[in-house]
Every structure is written in C-alpha cells, then in structure tokens.
Amino acid sequence: MDGPLVHALRSFPGGAVDAPIAFLDRDGVLNVSLDGYVNTPEELSLIRGTAEAMRALREAGFLLCVVTNQSAVDRGHWGEERLHQIHDRLHDVLKEDDAQPDLILSCPHLPWARCGCRKPGTGMLELGSHLLRSSDGFGPMRERWTEPYAGTAHAGDVMVGDRRSDVQAGLDFGARSFFSRRDVGLSHLVARVLDFDDQGDGVG
Is the distance from CB of 162 to CB of 203 less than 8 angstroms? Predict the structure, then answer.
C-alpha cells in the first residue's frame, strides 16, 4: 500500500540529524476543527495563537512536521489535489509569521485499510523523521510516498494532538506526547513542550 501524502513547499537542506521534531496534529490543534472535514482552503481557520506557538518552537530549534489523518481522500469526498490546496493555504497563513511547517504528512487511507501510517500507527512520524533527518534533504514535493522509509525518534521529539490516537502514536514512536483539548490549540502547551523535564501525557 502507498504511504502518506507528502506536502513540502520549500526545499529542505538536510543535515539536521540532531534537531528535535515537533510532530503536530492539524485539526483541533492548529486549525479549528469542523464537523466532518475541512473541505476547502477557505474553510481552514487557525486557532488563536497557533502561528506564535509554532514560531516559538522553531526558534527553540524544533523542526515542524504536521501529521494528519485525512481519510476523506480515499473515501472519495475529494481528491489529493484538494488536500494539497488546503495545505497550501495552511502554509501561506503561517508564512506571514515565519511559522510555516517544514513538512506536512497526511494519511489518506480508510480507517479499516490496515495501513501503517494512520494514527495511532507511527508511519507518518517515521517518514517525517526519515525525511527531515536525511543528510541529502529534499526538494518541494506534492506526492504519495511509495519508497521504503525508516525513521526513529530522537531525544526531544514531541507529538501534540487532540485525540487518544495522536498521543498513542507519539508514545509508540518514542516521543514525549501531549494532549491538547480540541480547538484549545497549541499555544496552551508550548511552555510544557519547551520544558524538557516535562514527560508529557499518557492515554488513560
């Protein structure tokens, strides 16, 4: 089965082997969640404080990787190009504050498809680590990933999500994992994320 959809608007130089990665869920953490899906770029609205929080993580040395389950693609609600357009919009509204992600990964598969990338699976985190920690880096991409990949967690990696499946994916990957209440947003957790003595949350 094909892997996640990869969205990167900027070239990434590579060589950031020891940099921590902040893996961030999208809906309910970065942008306001909707009943169903964010179906168009115009429906994407950032939660207050998202840009400032992402910039704070970047300034602290984190690479930023959005990891989001988006089964609407394989359900046939809309296609891959629509998802890329939504992520173009996410990139553009965050770029204004120098807070755009380095990489966006989306699992397009159905929940029952037994893929390895849909959270609570760790496939998107593994691919994010594989790409962002490569020595060669990568250029702009808008494609389904079909090549083998293997990435591992490093000290300092974090996962932030608003669902049990997000936190479980982070814990299984080996990252400190934080639970964000839906639509409260990333900004309320930045101080905890930046406190490396804070071991995060469980999934109880």
Answer: no
Q: Which of 2, 18, 27, 35 is catalytic?
A: 27
Mean pLDDT of 14-41: 93
**136 vs 17, 20, 60, 105, CA distance in Å?**
11, 18, 23, 19
CB 13, CB 95: distance < 8 Å:
no
Q: Of 171, 76, 160, nearest to 121 (Cα)?
A: 171
**Alpha carbons 44 and 31: distance in angstroms, whole number:** 6
Q: Is 27 a catalytic residue?
A: yes
How do residues 87-141 score in pLDDT, each as one tens digit?
A: 999 999 999 899 999 999 999 999 999 999 999 999 999 999 999 999 989 999 9
Q: Is the pTM higher than 0.90?
A: yes
Position 204 confidence tier, pLDDT thresholds 50, 70, 90? low
Catalytic residue (choose from 2, 18, 25, 35): 25
- Give the tokens for residue 26: 């999208």
Cα 68 to chain centroid, rounded: 6
